[in-house]
Amino acid sequence: MSIGLLARASQSQKNGKRLSPILSALSRSFSQSQSQSTLPSFGIAFDIDGVVLRGETPIGGSPQALRRLYHHDGDSGALKIPYIFLTNGGGFRESKRALELSELLGVHISPSQVVQGHSPFKQLVDRFENELVVAVGKGEPAAVMSEYGYKNVISIDDYTSCFENIDPLLPYKKWTTKQVSYQNSTSKERDLRNNIHSQRVRAVFIVSDSVDWSRDIQGAFPAERLGLGAFRIALESVFNKIHPHALGYTTYGKPNPFVFNNAETLLKQLVQSCHHNVNIANHANAGNRHLKTLYMIGDNPSVDIYGARQAGHPWFSILTRTGVFKGKDNHPEFPADLVVDTVEEAVDYILRKECTS
Ligand SMILES: [Mg+2]
């Protein structure tokens, strides 16, 4: 698994505080044409890997399943059922990931429907906005943080390139990393690098899996990946061995209940987007609307299912057999409320239950 990890950060700041502008943009981009008089009283959070995609391939009938969550009045792509993707993966901006998912799955997905392992870092921007922070991980970790509003962020590749001999193992490494091109860098980026030696790094954000070590420590590709969980243990072990004080850290990502509470807030706000033109007077409190059921559809019992169960009411967990879990019966240690073969079956179950009652 890959979860967002902020080394030495303390408690996150007021949950959900920065979400409103994104969601209000979303509400503009969604339906202009609903005519239903009832608002949905449920929302859905989809895990991505092993549920809707394997690599870049849709699985489990995911495109058909997702299409059922939209209105079919022409090509408006208007959302009918509030849903989000809730993944511990990451490394790319939510805006970019939303575009990719839209193309792969054939439906319009907004950036605010994509919650990645590092998405909660948005909420720490007030604290580190102008501080020097380093972004670690595969993909475009610095671009991710810049999009969140961090103004003084540098990727670990760029940062290490500013220091000679920072990596004692470099001479032994057979691979070559892409040389950073400074020709197209902005004056701000050049200033950052020129002044790097006189600035103190205030935080290191592990945005996604660290590229340089993880392959070797995990072996080829075992059934269950360890990713940042293993990296955190390694970091903590080493740090605590060589420092008098223990490493302070906060982890984000499923199965942390924080993630599910945040997902609930997002889904409640999405209700408004689903029925933009509905008589607002009747639905003045749509944004604070109580959703009586929230479905978590996942393939990993100890992450998706355990997380949803820990979060409790109104979460209902559905375990698919297309990813980590392949069992015939329910998982013995982290049983789901429902076990199905595919995500399509899961959505079918939800829609039958919710839309015919
Ligand atoms: Mg998964």
From TrEMBL:
Q: Which InterPro entries match?
A: CDP-alcohol_PTase-I, HAD-like_sf, HAD-SF_hydro_IIA, HAD-SF_hydro_IIA_CECR5, HAD_sf
For this record, the Gene Ontology CC terms, alphabetical, are: mitochondrion
Q: Is-annotated flag, keyword Hydrolase?
A: yes
Molecular function as annotated in GO: hydrolase activity
Q: Does the keyword Transmembrane apply?
A: no
Q: Which keywords describe this protein according to UniProt?
A: Hydrolase
Report any one BP term from Gene Ontology. Answer: glycerophospholipid biosynthetic process
Pfam families annotated for this entry?
Answer: Hydrolase_6, Hydrolase_like
Q: Which domain of life is it from?
A: Eukaryota
Query: Which PANTHER family does this UniProt record tie to the protein?
Result: CAT EYE SYNDROME CRITICAL REGION PROTEIN 5 (PTHR14269:SF4), CDP-DIACYLGLYCEROL--GLYCEROL-3-PHOSPHATE 3-PHOSPHATIDYLTRANSFERASE-RELATED (PTHR14269)
Xref: NCBIfam families: CECR5 (TIGR01456), HAD-SF-IIA (TIGR01460)
Name of protein: HAD-superfamily hydrolase, subfamily IIA, CECR
